[in-house]
């Protein structure tokens, strides 16, 4: 075989491997989408079966220590947690976190998701002392990576605020809720629909604190935004 023909053969083989890789990635993405639909429909056992396949496909396609494997494990953990199978969920969350730390480094902001999921699993089991530092670490990673007033900080802020509110630690929760609201106000238009959710969350929080006048103010702002966006 001529060198030209050999080069053509090598190019063809390389192309086939690329196509195979793309096909496997598409397969993983399709499984993830299917599982999400089933989850939204409340079909947890079916979704678990699909996600178990997604984990195997991700490990084969991307390698066992790839972030996509961690994503699959996290989603699977969420499903087990939704069914009250916390032992399985906790194990999967820990595996996902370990993979993300290895693949991305311990200070990468993407770890905030893994930390939050593990914290939520502990919280669901009443393991509050285990959950709290994970919520805090999730917030710290995002704040360090994006800055104090970046929208990426909002989710871990709200998660920690809700955790404190659920524990009746209102003095610790309130500044976190207001911090999240300030970030929204600085980064969104005053009538942006995303403002509604945080305003209603804060209103509900103030009701728990029996600060009815503050709750009414937040609700009125939320209703005004809803009206303008209808």
Structural write-up:
This protein has 230 residues and is mostly helical. It has a domain of 105 residues: Alpha Horseshoe (Serine Threonine Protein Phosphatase 5, Tetratricopeptide repeat), CATH 1.25.40. The protein contains ten helices and no strands. It is globular, with a radius of gyration of 22 Å. The chain starts with a helix and ends with a helix. About 8% of the residues have low confidence.
List the helices and strands and how they pair.
Elements: H1 3-40, H2 44-62, H3 67-82, H4 86-104, H5 111-124, H6 128-146, H7 154-166, H8 170-187, H9 194-208, H10 212-228
Give the H and E element order: HHHHHHHHHH
CATH architecture title of the domain at 1-105: Alpha Horseshoe
CATH class of the domain at 1-105: Mainly Alpha
Query: What percentage of the residues does DSSP assign to strands (E)?
Result: under 5%
Segments where pLDDT lies below 50 for 5+ residues? 4-21
Spatial gap, N to C terminus = 70 Å
Number of strands: 0
- Residue-averaged pLDDT: 89
Oligomer classification: single chain
Tally of helical runs: 10
| CATH-assigned fold name of the domain at 1-105 | Serine Threonine Protein Phosphatase 5, Tetratricopeptide repeat
Q: CATH H-level name of the domain at 1-105... which superfamily?
A: Tetratricopeptide repeat domain
- Determine the structural class based on helices, strands and strand pairing: mainly alpha
